[in-house]
Structures are given as structure tokens and as C-alpha cells.
Amino acid sequence: MPDREKFPVHTGGVENFDLESGRYMKVWQGPQHPGVTGNMALELVTSGDEIVDLKTHVGYLHRGFEKLMERRKWIQNFPLVCRICVPEPDFNEYLYAAATEELAGIEIPERAVWIRTLNLEMARLTSFLMWLGGQAGAFGMGTIGQWTVTMRDFMLDLFEELTGGRIYHMYIVPGGVRGDVPQGWFSHVLTTLKNVEKVLDDIELVLFNNAVFKKRAVGLGVITPDMVDYYGITGPNARASGVARDIRKDRSYLIYDKLDFDIITGISIGVDSDIFGRTRLRAAEMRQSISLIRQMIDKMPEGPVHVSPPNVLHWKIPAGETYLSAECTRGEYGYYIVSDGSDKPRRVYVRGPSYTHAVALFEHMAPGTNIADTAGLMVSLHTYPPEIER
Amino acid sequence: MSIKDIIAPFAVWKRAFEKPWTIKKPIDDRPGADRYRGFHKNDGDTCIGCGTCETICQNAAIDMVPVDGVQGDGGDSGLRPQIDYGRCCWCALCVDICTTGSLTMSNRYVWTDNDPDVYRFIPGYDSKEWDNAETGYSRPEGYSLLKEERVEMPALSVEEGLKSFVEMIKGYSAEQAVKEADRCVECGICVAECPAHMDIPGYIRAVREGNIDEGMRLLYETNPFPASCGRICTHRCEEVCSIGHNGDSVAIRWLKRYIADQVELEDYGKALPRPEENTGKKIAVIGAGPGGLTAAYYLRMLGHDVAVLEARKAGGGMLRYGIPEYRLPYDQLDKDIEYIRGLGVEIRYSINVDAESFKNLEKDYDALFFSTGLSDPYKLGIDGEDNPRVFGGLAVLDEVTAGKDPKLGKTVGVIGGGNVAMDAARTARRYGAEVTVLYRRRVVDMPADIEEIEEAAEEGITIIPQAIPLRVEDAADGKVGFVWNMAEMVDDPDGGRPRPQPIKGEIHTFVCDSLISAVGQGTNLPYLPEESESGVAVKRYKPVVDERGQTGNPGIFAGGDIVNSRKDAVSAIGDGHAAALSIDRFLMKKEA
Q: Is the pLDDT of residue B465 over 90?
């Protein structure tokens, strides 16, 4: 266990730096800045072009989701939770629905479980596509962003056909999924995956075999394995440092135990735990998602996709509490739901990985880096501010 | 780092020659997917304005508003959803929960306008270019947010039921009642349709929350006959129930019965309000049927002294003498009546009112309400109907109520298609007879409750529709023959319901031991003085009253079957309540 001296708790003590001395300058990056993901502000103290201190400011995106949910009936929350994390709403939908079902004692049909898993893996791929464009863009390679966002749009086409919506799918509902897979949809998925793979092949050449990217990304933003538990790091950020931690394997949920895949770590693909390594690892996880989606399409069982809850207007869920988690693109995503036996949740708490990554970890990692690398460093942690501010 | 890291990125030069993916809107259009959740559509003919979409909308984007040309009657609230696209998030919960399936979505997703007010619109009424779009989101098959199957009512088997006059319907258990009450969406369409305007969503909510006293209080706000109505009401409410559009309607009647069944008569007083302070006004009510006793109850509650005069030996009117015990046990009817009597309403039995005493009553009392029901059976109007083997439907039921065997024989024919015909047929069946019902129109045209027709068929009663009576004649072995002509249905040129027209040569004779004639009954008002004396006008055998039950004489009021066209218990109760309020206004000189 690392001690406090090694990883000092950040105090945000900007006043420690004598700004009058002329050695330091305070720079605000965000909340409106292309180098900051989402609406979040970074208060930087620089010395020359080196960052000597960083304080993060959140709150620009606070919409009070958790409180709102306490005033809505159980069924009325599924259109709300997807907004907590815009690029990958499905994890919110799944966790809210699954936790509600657990409290209510509802078993959902097998096909619904498979479709949910398929949906989540597609969301993972879609979210990584956008992130990859951002990561490359942060180092000045905007073209890659154009390719990946195009591919993401084709993935969104698939979501549109399946769920009726491109961004907010509102598809995984308490009781199953909202509708069965449309005719011919699987083959459309397979075609799209092939196109995505072609782009990934090109990105292999243009990003991972690129002297410019290597020069900037290798050795920057290193996460060591002993930081993982101290900062509560999960997901690819932890795996790149060599810690084999993946909820899909560790606490097998949905149908992940029926699919063939291994946890990808920095060690298994032979990269260091820096920005380059994390990018590499996520690209490998994209290919893993593609493989999982193909496996699921192959083995998808037939049957109903939904069980009806009681009349949702008076749906009361027995008193109880539960915490469910899932492996989203950024790590452990969790929902803690308490029911007091009424027709509305008593408390919904959302545990998102961005909070630990974007605040504590980022504030620790930034000092000592170059101001030009701030954006790339932040993107490499893959954080989404809307999910910090529930 | 190697030389490859410098050269490799150039390998993707080929992408510079690729065709762009960008869609050049508006030159190229890109339609939304087949189940895209785009702009709303609403089928105005299917929509009943139940407002469940408004209830479920988590953004409060939907308001129910009146729309020109939409009438609020017959199970339609007259309101339609107006959607505010400044609040809508296109989650389609409104589409999923729509009770009739009228609300859907198109796959259109682009709409620009420089007037911000147009984005609050009424789908289906404010015409939009996507109104006829074929694709877009609609509720997937098998996906439902409401419970569509009714909780099954425990009942005696048909064989058991036929053995005696024991009540057939057993009533819900607490668990069943709560489960059934859970199905209600509280739209209130039923309230408008109920002749007594009962607070149906309110008392169903009381069942759901286990608050029986509150349920009793709500029942008695508009109906002092819950134990009876909970059994035999014609439940027009259930016919318009919004849940009934896509499944079984909520068992409103059984839930009412459930509440009344949970409370013993001694405990009624704990749940229900007491009468107001005495006003010193005296009112006479003629007829102790549901209409008369309802008026008596509400007048008593308002603090007036009420005397009810009844010609028969017991109260309840048609509820007692027209409805067999297996549908409404007498102890349940007595429970309702006893509570009213216990509040201080004086009921005098075996008192026949004639024109002379009517005039005296008018003098002695501050106001008069009469509700004497329909007691004069219509004639068949055919030859031989005075045959001694032809009985009146009501007369048969009356005799059975008095505990006498009507001695109908082994085969019985019943002529008519109303509730009295069905009750008489099923009563005869319980005396072991083979029963055949003959009706001049089709089964769907029968005025009887559909349940009564179905239950009659289950009990082995044959129904011969489209049988026009021709004559009654003697048959061999002391039997009676009913000669009838097969009819075909022809459309009414005036647009009315189809009419039976005899088919030439299709003449049959039905031979049986007894014939029961039950083709309806009319008013019998021998006690009513001439209009010049009483001020009460009679038109087409009915006393003329205004919507508040007041006759031409401001102190005389009338209600029930003799006045309204529905001719059922709950309409009489509605009339009685309305008349009680008008009498109070008249006596206490209150403003309407």
C-alpha cells in the first residue's frame, strides 16, 4: 500500500506559489476548451511551459440526476439515466434496469440478456471510436478523428435501427429490452464491423507506427501498479499498468462467462503504462469487442425479449438495496439503489470511474508535464465530466 | 523508433481518393430508421383522451387540452395531448403506455420554424407533414407497461350454480382486489360515464392502498347502494374503461363490491359522515327503490326529515323484485337499506298512494319526490297472448322472490332480450326447466348485459335470435305453441339500427309448457293527479322533469326509471342524488 508521502493528497494550494514573483503564471483551461473533455475547468499554475500545479474544477454540468430520480417513478428513470454519460448511455440503462429488476425480483428472458450484452459491447466500441479520435486529435492528428467519428456514426446508425435513437438509446428497460432485433440487422452489424476494422488497420499504421505520436506519448503520464488501488483506478487505465482487473471476468455478469475472451493488460500486449500503452490497449480492446459482438451474433438464442412489470404507474418495489457494477470503457461503473418499498427510488447513487481518474489521479499526474500535453494526458485517462456530476 | 515510424503513416494516402461519406442535406435526404423515435403522431379517432400519456411523461411535456370538433362523451374525455417540444425528450414512454395505441411516432427528425410557439402542438390535429409517414416508433408487439388481463373472479361452477339460488360470484380476496386495483390508470373516463358520477379512480386507489374506510366514504359520496351496485350494476364505466381498449377493462364493479363487503353494517358509521343538523324541513318520497332511497339518504344527510312511502312489503324496488337472489342476495340489499333507515329515514311499507293522498302529501310536506319505477309490463301485441300458460317475466321473478315455485313446467320459452328476460330464463333454469329465449333481433342487439347473455348460454339456455312473434296458440297435452317468423336484418334507410324483416315462408312453432313474456315494461302512474291540479306534466307516459329532476311544480320532483332512458339502478341512484340536491336548493333557497 503506497503511503501518503509518495502520493501526496493534492491540496489545490495554488497560494503556495508566489505569483508575484514572475516565475509562475496561472492559466485556466476550460470549461470551454477543445483540449478538455466535456465541461470541466483546469486551473493550471505554470512555470515557463511546465505545469507545476493543477486543480480541477467540476460543477459546470451538474444536473442533479440522482436527486431527480428520487422524484420519479421507477419506470420514468430509464429515459433519464442514459444522460448521465452521453457517449455510452447503455451502461447506465443496463445497471439501472438490472438493479431495479434485482430489487423487484424480476427474471428477464435469456434473449434479452444476450441483446443487452451485445448492446453494451457495441456501446464500448462506439465510445472507444470517439475517444480514439480525441486522443489522436489532442496530439494534432485531426484526420484520425474524422475517420473514427465517421465510423462511430455508422455504429450510431445501427443503434438507430435497433433502438430508435442514435445517442440516447433508451432501449434497455426494467423487464428486458424494448423490442426485438429488426430484420436483417445482424448482417448490417457484421458489415459495419468490417469497415471499422479497416479503419483500425489504417490507424495502426498512422498512429501506432508514427514517430510524432511516439515522441509525444511514450513515457508520458505513467501509471504504476501501486497507484491503482490508492487512487481507485479501474478499467484500461489499471490494465495498462499490468493489473488484470476486468469486471467482465472477475464478477461475471450478463453472459460474459459464455464468451471467449481474455483480460488484456499492458503486460499481455507488451506495452508500458504510458499514454502510448493505454492507447494501444484500448485499440486492442476495440478489436476484442468486435470479436465479442461476432460471437454473440453467432450464438444468439431465440425467444421473448421482455417481461411486463406490473402497471408501471403504481409499480412499487419491495424495500431493499443493491449495488451492481459493470465494466464500461473507462472502468467500474456502478449503481447503488435503495428502495423504501414505494413507487419511487429512495436513493440512486452512481459510481462512475471518471471521478477518480479526472480529479485525484489527474491532479497528481499533471505537475511536471508540459502544458501542451495537458489535453493528451487528460484524454488518455478517458474521462467524461457529465458522469462526475450526477 | 525506427525508419518504419517515419514511412508507415504515408501508407494511408489512399484515403485521400475515397468518396466522402458526408450527406449533403438538403440535397440528399436521409430518412430515419424504421423504428426511429421521431415526431409524434396521434390517431384522433382512436384516441380517447385518457391522459395516461400526460401522467407518465417524466418531463411534463404533455398537456391534455380541448380540441375543436372533439366531443367529450361516450368514453372520450374530449381532450387530446398537446406536446411541448421544448420539454419532450422523445423517450416514447407516452407511446408505450398509450391505452388505445393511438399515439405513435414518425421517423421524421428535422423541423425548422422561426416561430417558437409552433413547437407546442397537438399531434393529429395541428396538421404536420409527417402525419401520414408510415414508419417510425410504435409500441413493439408484446411490450406492455400496463396489465391487460383482469384478475379472475372466483365463482361457482355452472353446475353448482344451477342447483340453487346461492350467489354465484364469490368476490375478490384482499390480495386479488389490490392486484386488480393496480391495473387502473386513474384516467377518470369512467367518472363521466357513470350515471351517478362516482369517484371510481378514488375508491380504486383506496383499495390499492388498503384504506377501506376511505373507500366507503368515497362510495357513499355519490351512491348509497354500494353492496347492491357492486353486484348488479350495469357498469357502463367498464365499457368505457381505457384499459379495455387493449385488454380487459378494470373490474370496477367488483372492486366496489369488495369495499362494501369488507365492512360490517355496524361499522359503517365509523367510516361514514353523520347527517347535518336538523333543518326542520319535511320531505315525502314515494317509492323505496334505489331512486327514492338515494334521494332519502342525501336529503337526510343534509338535515331534512324524510318519510319514504312504499307500496310493497319491503324496500329495494326492482333490486328486490326484479333481480334474482343468485345475482343479488337479499341480505346485501338489506344491508344498504338498513344503513339508510338507521340514519333516521322513516320507511313506511304497504302504503298505496292514490291521487287523493298524493295531494295530501303535497300539502303536508315541504317537498315531494316520486320514483315508482316501471311496473306495467308491455304486451306482446299478438293473438292468443292471454293464454293461461303465458306469464309475465316480472311476475315470475316476483313470485320467486316471495318464495313460491312458479310451476313453469319442463320446457319454457322466454320472449324478449333484456335483463328481465335473462333473469326470468335463468330463474326458470334453476327450477329445472329446458329454457329457450326467442328475440326479434340479433344477439348483439340484445339490451341485456353481455355477461348475463354469456352466463345464460353457459347455463345451457338456447337463444333463438331474429324470431318475430306471430301468435300464441294451444298445443297438444296442455302445452302452448308460440308461432314465430324467421327474420332477416335490413339496414334502416333512416340510418337507425338494422331492423328485422320477416322472411316469407319461414314460419316456425315453438311448443313448450310455459311462455314467459318479457319485452319491457312501462310507467304506471295512477296516483298522479291531473296536470291542472298537480302541475306535473306527463308526456309519452313519463313525468316531465328538468335536468335537476324538478317537475312543473317547483315542490315536486321525480326520478328513476319513470324519468330516465337508461332504466337501470345506477341511473336511478344518480337521479335520486341530483333530485336531493335540487330539493335542498329549493327548500333552503340556495343559489344553484
A: yes
Residue A161 to residue B140, Cβ atoms within 8 A: no
Instruction: Please tell me which of the candidates B9, B91, B208 has its beta carbon nearest to residue A170.
Output: B91
Instruction: Indicate the residue of B5, B91, B93 with minimum beta-carbon distance to A211.
Output: B5
Answer yes or no: is A136 within a domain: yes
d(CA A232, CA A261): 25
Specify whether the CB–CB gap between B482 and B461 falls below 8 A: no
Taking the alpha carbons of A51, A57, A60, A66 in that order, is the dihedral positive or negative? Answer: positive
Residues of B in contact with A206 (CB under 8 A): 8-9, 11-12
B248 touching A (Cβ < 8 Å): no
3-class state of residue B413 by DSSP: strand
Instruction: Say if A346 falls within a structural domain.
Output: yes
Query: Tens digit of pLDDT for each residue in B58-107?
Result: 999 999 999 998 888 888 999 999 999 999 999 999 999 999 999 999 99
Class of domain B165-271: mainly alpha
Greatest Cα pair distance, chain A, in angstroms, is 72
State the Cα–Cα distance between residues B564 and B542, nearest whole angstrom.
9
- B450 by Cβ neighbours in 10 Å (0-12 / 13-18 / 19+) ranks as exposed
Residue A11's pLDDT is what?
Answer: 46
CA distance B226 to B315: 16
What total of structural domains would you count in chain A?
1
Q: Right CATH number for B282-375+524-587 from 3.50.50.60, 3.20.20.70, 3.10.180.10, 3.90.550.10? A: 3.50.50.60
Q: Are B531 and B344 in contact (CB under 8 A)?
A: no
Q: Does residue A22 belong to any structural domain of this protein?
A: no
The answer to whether residue B16 neighbours chain A at the CB level (below 8 Å) is no
A114 in a structural domain: yes
Q: What is the CATH number of domain B27-145?
A: 3.30.70.3270
Place of cell 327474420: B487
Minimal-distance CA residue of chain A relative to B147: A311
Please list every residue in chain A whose beta carbon sits closer than 8 Å to the beta carbon of residue B58.
Answer: 72, 76-77, 79-80
Domain holding A375, by residue range, is 73-388
Please give the Cα distance from A262 to A241 (Å, whole number): 16
Q: What is the CATH number of the domain that holds A93?
A: 1.10.645.10
DSSP string, A287-345: HHHHHHHHHHHHHPPPS--B---S-GGG----SEEEEEEEEETTEEEEEEEEE-SSSSE
> Rounded distance, CA A197 to CA B1, Å?
25
Does B379-519 carry CATH code 3.50.50.60? yes
* A168: nearest CA partner in chain B: B91
Tell me: the pLDDT tens digits for B195-213?
A: 999 999 999 999 999 999 9
Residues of B in contact with A311 (CB under 8 A): 145-147, 182-185
Q: Where in chain B is the domain with CATH 3.50.50.60?
A: 282-375+524-587, 379-519
Task: Please report where in the chains the cell 494516402 appears, as a residue.
Answer: B13
SS3 (DSSP) at B219: helix
CATH 1.10.1060.10 in chain B, residue ranges:
165-271
CB of B92 less than 8 A from some CB of A: yes
How far CA B128 is from CA of B63, B108, B116, in Å, comes to: 19, 11, 16
Beta bridge partner(s), residue B438: B415, B464
- Residues in chain A with pLDDT < 50? 1-4, 9, 11-14
For the cut 80, the answer to whether the pLDDT of residue B592 exceeds it is no
| CA-angle at B463, arms to B461 and B466, nearest 5° | 170
Residues of chain B with CATH 3.30.70.3270: 27-145
